[in-house]
Each structure stands twice: as structure tokens, then as C-alpha cells.
Amino acid sequence: MSEVYAVRRGLLRDRFAAAGSAAALVSRPANVRYLAGGAPPGAVLLLGPGEDVLLCPRAPAGDPPHGRPDEQLRLTVLPDDDGDPVVAAAGLAGGLHAGSLAVEEHDLTVARHRAMAAAAPRLRLCDLGSTVEQLRLVKDEEEIACLRIAAEITDQALGELLESILVGRTERHLALELERRLVDHGADGPAFATSVGTGPHSGQGRHRPTDRRVEEGDFLSVGLGANYRGYRCEIGRTFVIGTSPADWQIELYDLVFAAQKAGREALVPGAAYRDVDRAARHLLDSAGHSDGLPPSTGHGVGLEIDEDPQLAPTAMGKLDACVPVTVEPGVHLPGRGGVRIDDTLVVRPEADGGPELLTITTKELLAL
Amino acid sequence: MSEVYAVRRGLLRDRFAAAGSAAALVSRPANVRYLAGGAPPGAVLLLGPGEDVLLCPRAPAGDPPHGRPDEQLRLTVLPDDDGDPVVAAAGLAGGLHAGSLAVEEHDLTVARHRAMAAAAPRLRLCDLGSTVEQLRLVKDEEEIACLRIAAEITDQALGELLESILVGRTERHLALELERRLVDHGADGPAFATSVGTGPHSGQGRHRPTDRRVEEGDFLSVGLGANYRGYRCEIGRTFVIGTSPADWQIELYDLVFAAQKAGREALVPGAAYRDVDRAARHLLDSAGHSDGLPPSTGHGVGLEIDEDPQLAPTAMGKLDACVPVTVEPGVHLPGRGGVRIDDTLVVRPEADGGPELLTITTKELLAL
Fold first, then answer.
1. Do A2-136 and A141-357 share a fold?
2. Which of A106, B27, B222, B230 minimizes the number of CB atoms within 10 Å of its CB?
3. Smallest CA–CA distance from B193 into chain A, residue
4. Where does the Peptidase M24 domain start and stop, copy by copy (chains A, B) (predicted)?
């Protein structure tokens, strides 16, 4: 596995060297983990001009939830109170006469950037931009295997919840129980804060659970995902509580289902991000639900739960094979609730069977 | 309650006006919440030169875990995809010919700062520094009341756990159960990731729970806290599992207990931060445990779990009355485990009875 990280670092090195930098400093935690195998809290990765170094503010723990750093990589633990690792890295690069150092300006604060400049006045700091994020877009099969396991865990946790009594329980309790089940089934933790919304709260993507209790006749929306070895997936489902759904519930469900299906079917290599979004969105728009639609109907997942690409009306770019994304349209009617259906899929060529659905929990409208 | 926020904003305005700025932009979420009463995700607060405005990337939710913004404050919700609220704020301040705008350079990324400068080229961006953090140091009685409730919830959750069977359960499960109990008792959530460490993992401050199970003869360390209306407290306790502790366990416990007591007793208005640290630390040092001591033996708490002051050997400054801090020395012996004892207290003058202990769970060595 170690070679994988060395290869990734090599690719990054090619990019920043081509842009004229002798060295780069990676500080965004997901980027550090991608390149170093593990990102102990606060660790930053200095690539070149000398040996690659992972600078950590303290020694990594024995059983780390943030991954285990590649053993091929030099690991420097800074003494207590020895300040910020990015400043130490600037000092190191300055001492080696790197000339210029590419940094992640979208991650570093102005204050840290200034402290680096002060520590190495001869070093020219330039912007690495989102180079590492771009490398992270297309996943290798090892990464997809982690996402697949994360999705299996997620499906199991959700499946068990559906077998239990729901009426009378609060959104908070259901969310906590889902998170416990994720961990029971082997997740390192939830991929993001689990969302449970009942009745008027249903149908919203990131609703924070409240003390509202599930009632007969409610829509119940859940959004959850497992984090497995750093890789995060996402599922969203909406159910009805009680014997039989009302007509407006069936109608709204069928509409969102159709929109989500259209989005999933648009996931082919070469499809423009905005066209995937439009496929899902236009059905909701035509049905008069353009108000209150979320700004995107899907996004990439990986070491972060919300990473590139964005499937949104103004997004630029086209899907590649082996890019995992969510497709998650939803409609929320203020005061009444709504429906959201969300899957994690991997873009695959048609010759390989088309998009690979990772989250396989049924999307039939279940009455629980 | 609304006046409180207006008064705080007035104090901040005095500070930045004295430093020569016509306007300030607060972006750090805890600072926004302190001044605005609520900090919807991504919201930033622009003070002056015109009316104060809370700029939000989307409409605040109905039942917000991040507080409810002061109704006296103008609230501007940016249209979808209308970019970064800090850029919108720079445009607003530039349009009002503010001249200069003080920003939180320790919070803003270089990329966001650059986008602000581009949006308002005539605006001079200067540094607000940690002015708001300084205002937050001394708490008013309303804030302390929130911390007191947070501590009560925390004590309840911990007390219930102690009544249950512990042997055979994993660190992860115990941590999840503690977090569920915090929420059951009215917390908005855990104040930080609950830490449970058994056997060789015990005695570490921020140990991340693993699948190790509690065994007879183990030390068991827990660290948890409730978040109540944004205010976060912290408790840490260490127990022994089984009938009777070993001699080394009693000895180590007594030592850490004495160190923690010394730290607590040093909490008087006017005491230097470093002297409080030294009071707790020197007992551990003299017993030969200087290796592996944490860099600080306590810190402030409030809207963030780890805020100023730092009780550390090189910290500068003196305690004021009404500053809540933790006192949390610990010793961890690699391979064997250790002891950590952590309380949240409020500094009070001796005339008022001395430090107010918020976390009242017993510190006797309990054999469970």
C-alpha cells in the first residue's frame, strides 16, 4: 500500500515542479491523508526540496482513527510548544534554499501564512491551489473498495433501524442509534452528522435532529453514512409512518424518485456536471418545485463527505470514470415536510455495466 | 438577552475604532455567536460603518443548534451560489467607503482574504487579531449559568454510566453511551469527542476510543462534557475496574489527585497562568513524571472547548474572576496506563468562597 502514497506524491511533485516550485507544503487534513496515508491531528506534509517530511505537533497515537502514516515517509514530531508545523516547515524549506514553496492558500489562514513568511524571509510563497483535490477526484480501486465497505455498513445500520419500532421516538434518539449501529458494524465513525427529520422536518438534506417524535402519518427522512478508513459515503431515504401514505405523499415521493433516477442514469463518463444536475432538477422544476431546491443535487465523496465535483447548475467540468458521487434531489414543502432520496454511486463506463450503486437499501416507498 | 449582544458589539466597536478601523468583520464561528447570539453555518458579522449585518449563506433553520441570532441585528441571507459571505461583506464595506476593515486573520484563509481584497480594492484590510477572544475571556453570570447546566448534565451522564456493568464493554460503546446520555439530559450535543481509555490507554487526555474491552484490574479513564446553548464544559475521571486497586494504581492516583488539587487551589484572581500550571505540574515532575506530561494542565472553556487562557509553563497573563478553566493534570505510563483527573471550575475571589467547582462527580478512587 505504501507505494500508492509514493506514486501520489510523485504525481503532485510533477505538477508543482511544472508550475515552477521546488517544494510544496500540504496542510489540508484530507490532502495530507491522501498523500501520506495518515494525517495525525495538525500534521502537515512538506514535499521536497529534500526528503519528504510529515511534521506532526505530537507523536501519532497507537490506534489512529486518522490513518497510519506511510512508513516510507520521514516523520518529525515537533517538541511541545514548538509552535506551528507550517512555520517549522517553512524554516526547513528556507534552510534548504528551496527558493519557492507552494502552499494551500485555501487552507492556510492569513496569520499562519504571515508567520511562515516571517520564519523564512527568502522563501517565495506561492499558491498550490486545489492541485491535490484534483488528484483526489478519480479514485483507484482500493479507495472504491473502502467506499463500498462504508456503504455496506451504512445499509446495515439503516436496515436494522427499519426493523425497530419508530413511532414515539425522537429524531435525536434515532440519529444516535444509527450512529451507534454504524460503529457496531465497523465504521470508524459517522461520515457526517446523521440527519433524521420527521413530519414537517422531513425532506431536508442536513436537518439537525430535534426532540420532535415520530408520529403516525409522518414522512421520516434519514441521511447517514459511515466513515471507513477515512472514506465517507452517504445515503438518504424517506419513509412514511403508519398504514398507508396519503395521496400527496405518494405523488411527491414518485416525483423525487423519478428525479433521482434521472440523475443516476445521467452518470456516464464524459457527462457534464451541470447536465447530471439538470437531469435530476428539471423534473422537480417542471412540477413547480423550483423554489427551495438545494443549490446542488449531488457531489463527490471520498476522504471528505463533500468534495469535488459539485453537480450544480453552474458547475464546470465533466465526469470521469471511477468518480464516486451522490445523487440526492429532494423537495421540502414548508410546514408539511418532504422527500429526499440520496445514493452514493461510482461513475463507470456502460461497457462495465454503467454507474455502480454502492448504497443498495431499497428506494420503494416503505410504510413503516 | 438581546441587549447583551448589543453591549458586546459596542465594546468591540470601541476597540477597533481605537485602533483606527471604521468597520470590522468577524468570521470565527464562536466569535460570531458571542456577538450575534447565533452563528448559522457560514455566517459572518459585519460591524459598521453602517448598520451591523449578519450575512448568512442560507436562511437559519427553525430549531438551530447554533443559537438564534439577536433579533435587533439585520440579517442578510445571500442568494444561492452568491459566493462567500466574507466577499459580500467586503463589497458592502467598500461600497460604504469604510476606508479600512479589520478582519480575523487567524480565521480567514489566504484565498478568502485575497477574494475580499479583489472585491473591494479601495478597502484597506487590517488585522482584528484576537480582540473578540479577549472579550470572551471573562464570562458574565448568564454564561456561567449555561456552563453550570452543562456541568450538571455531564455529571448526570457520568453518574449513570458508573451504575452500569462495565467489564467486557468496548471503549467505543462506552463513549457512545455517554454521548447518548448527555443528549438525554438536555445537552445540545457533546462538547467534544468523548474519550474513553481502558488499561494501557488510560490516563491520556484525548484518547480516541477503540474496540478494546474493559478488563478486571484496568484503569478506566473517561473525558466528556456537554454542550449547552453553545457553552462547553469538561470532566475527566479515572476509575479502577474490579475488587481492589493494585499498589501502583493507588500510588499513581494519589499523586495525580494531589497535583490536581494543588492546581485547583491555585485558582485565585490575580494568579499567573503559569503559576497555576506549575502548582499542578511540580508534584508530577518531582515524582519523576516530567516525560509525557501534556503541554498544558488546563485551559479556558466557554463557546469553545479549548479557549484562552492556557495554563501552561510559558503562558503569559493572570487569571481574572469569572474565568472558567479546566484543571486536568494526568500521567500516562506507556504500556501500563495512567490517571487523569479533570474539572471545570470558575475563578472566584476568596471572599466569594474561592473557585467554584462546576463538575462535582466524586474524585475518590472508585473501584467499579
1. no
2. A106
3. A189
4. 146-348
